[in-house]
């Protein structure tokens, strides 16, 4: 019998690992298998083996009533905007019977505690309420446990880093989640039930959707590429009603055809994913324009295919997903009013990003025909900004639809800069008055979000830098360059003054980063 050489105690020997054999000399550790975690995470009611773990955990586990309240707050304010990682009813049931992995409960509460009105939090600043839970989530994360739970925990930590305005840590956790998802081939991983399969797919698409922002902030290429072979999420009412014990229908059954086609057109989440894929292309377009102009090339600045794709997206929505007051009422009644409004807010944000660069060209173009075209495109940008603001104002009128996710503050700040353009260059007094009113209201909303999200403080500072740039040079303040691109996309990053910080050398480094994003 050959000698059992091991890389470290407790593992199978190297001979058996190479051949995928069960090691007879290692009774306490199975053969490594990426698709089967070596150990499960502790559940909420488990008694930890080490005194330190038990002591820390006992300090941060609230009573049963507060647990449920905090989970409800997570699904109301966070799950609808950051990512789609869980099945609400199943998650709540596992919280009630204490079987939920502790790491996931802490990760959820780290994001939702800021919204609680429970007396236990009365003396704690909303910014600080979730931080102990976040630290415990980080401590419990086992990077040797490649599993769905680890991926979900990483995505919760991604959201935590984002709201704290820490883009580097956000990117690290996002990278871990993406790599684990790739190793497991998460969307096609064998599952026991239809619910498990759907959750895996939703987590996969959530990683891809959030990476649209993560890659743009750092000018890095995607880690996960969208795959046409991975079905989009099923309709919300069908997902909410799934039972954990329902198996996956046979491929040749009518039930399978129903499931396979359910994520096509009538799912809010599926439509938001489609829109997010368009948003990624819009980000690449803006990055390409900046790179071309910096190199002295003449950029067209407009992709007619993207304009048509965005037009097609909104016009091809099923009737029940089109924006109307009747549909708002329908989705509010269904408990998905905020999700419906967020979808249309995101659409208008994609539109304002697509046409933003034409705000500058509308003031600079000398040729009459070119000026008319640029002004038409700039007007499209202003209309998207106006519609976006009105949607957020409407959402604020109902407690069940109010949107408080931090990215809303960022996209509202971009809409505000578009209204500043109206103040600087419009001649119609009524148009100017409306822009002033929207700017005041936007600032109030952004300031109210600052109560919950640390990163909103950065949003306010970025607006101040933009205002300073306008004071120095109105004609140049909307030019799409490396600084403006970071202003539009890098919402969790610190921004410095446009003139004093962005030297020629700094701009050169940023252009090098853009090449990474564009993969050229």
Task: Explain what the structure shows.
This protein is mainly alpha-helical and 520 residues long. The protein folds into 3 domains: 1-30, no CATH class; 59-231 and 233-252, no CATH class; 268-289 and 302-518. It contains 24 helices and no strands. The protein has helices at 14-19, 51-60, 64-77, 88-96, 102-112, 126-129, 131-140, 148-163, 167-184, 194-218, 236-240, 254-261, 268-294, 304-315, 325-333, 337-355, 358-364, 368-396, 406-425, 429-449, 455-472, 482-489, 498-501, 504-518. Helix 5 (102-112) packs parallel to helix 8 (148-163) and helix 15 (325-333) packs across helix 16. The longest helix is centred in the last third of the chain and has 29 residues, at 368-396. 41% of the residues are buried. Residues 6-11, 26-37 and 48-59 have low confidence and may be disordered. It is found in: Nucleus. GO terms for molecular function: DNA binding; DNA-binding transcription factor activity, RNA polymerase II-specific; zinc ion binding. Pfam families: Fungal_trans. This is Xylanolytic transcriptional activator regulatory domain-containing protein. Its main location: nucleus.
Task: Quickly describe the structure.
GO terms for molecular function: DNA binding; DNA-binding transcription factor activity, RNA polymerase II-specific; zinc ion binding. With 520 residues, this protein is an all-alpha fold.
């Amino acid at each position: 019998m050959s000698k059992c050489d091991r890389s470290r105690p407790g593992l199978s020997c190297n001979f058996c690992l190479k051949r995928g054999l069960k090691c007879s000399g290692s009774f306490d550790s199975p053969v490594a298998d990426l698709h089967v975690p070596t150990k499960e995470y502790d559940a909420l009611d488990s008694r930890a083996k080490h005194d330190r773990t038990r002591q820390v955990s006992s300090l941060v586990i609230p009573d049963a009533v507060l647990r449920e309240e905090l989970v409800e707050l997570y699904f109301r304010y966070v799950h609808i905007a950051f990512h789609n990682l869980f099945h609400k009813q199943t998650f709540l049931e596992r919280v009630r019977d204490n079987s939920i992995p502790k790491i996931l409960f802490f990760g959820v509460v780290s994001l939702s505690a800021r919204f609680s009105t429970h007396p236990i939090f009365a003396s704690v600043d909303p910014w600080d309420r979730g931080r102990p839970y976040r630290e415990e989530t980080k401590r419990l994360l086992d990077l040797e446990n490649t599993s769905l739970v680890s991926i979900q925990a990483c995505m919760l930590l991604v959201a935590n880093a984002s709201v704290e305005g820490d883009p580097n840590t956000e990117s690290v956790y996002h990278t871990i989640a993406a790599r684990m998802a790739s190793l497991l081939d998460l969307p096609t991983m064998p599952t026991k039930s239809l619910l498990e399969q759907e959750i895996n797919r939703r987590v996969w698409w959530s990683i891809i959707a959030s990476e649209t922002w993560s890659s743009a902030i750092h000018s890095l290429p995607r880690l996960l590429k969208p795959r046409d072979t991975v079905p989009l999420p099923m309709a919300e009412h069908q997902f909410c009603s799934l039972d954990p014990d329902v198996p996956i229908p046979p491929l040749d059954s009518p039930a399978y055809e129903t499931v396979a086609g359910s994520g096509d057109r009538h799912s809010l989440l599926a439509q938001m994913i489609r829109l997010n894929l368009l948003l990624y292309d819009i980000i690449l377009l803006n990055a390409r324009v900046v790179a071309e102009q910096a190199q002295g090339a003449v950029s067209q600045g407009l992709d007619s295919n993207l304009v048509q794709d965005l037009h097609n997206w909104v016009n091809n929505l099923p009737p029940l997903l089109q924006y109307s007051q009747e549909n708002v009422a329908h989705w509010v009644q269904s408990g998905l009013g905020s999700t419906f409004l967020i979808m249309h807010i995101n659409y208008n944000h994609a539109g304002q990003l697509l046409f933003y660069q034409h705000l500058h060209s509308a003031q600079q173009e000398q040729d009459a025909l070119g000026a008319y075209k640029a002004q038409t495109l700039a007007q499209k940008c202003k209309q998207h900004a106006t519609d976006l603001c009105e949607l957020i104002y409407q959402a604020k009128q109902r407690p069940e639809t109010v949107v408080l996710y931090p990215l809303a503050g960022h996209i509202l700040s971009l809409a505000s800069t578009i209204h500043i353009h109206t103040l600087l260059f419009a001649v119609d007094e009524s148009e100017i008055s409306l822009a002033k009113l929207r700017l005041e209201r936007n600032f109030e909303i952004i300031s109210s979000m600052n109560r919950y999200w640390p990163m909103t403080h950065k949003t306010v500072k970025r607006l101040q830098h933009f205002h300073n740039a306008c004071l120095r040079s109105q004609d140049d303040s909307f030019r799409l360059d490396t600084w403006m691109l970071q202003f539009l996309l890098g919402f969790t990053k610190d921004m410095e003054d446009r003139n004093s910080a962005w030297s020629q050398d700094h701009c050169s480094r940023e252009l090098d980063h853009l090449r990474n994003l564009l993969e050229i």
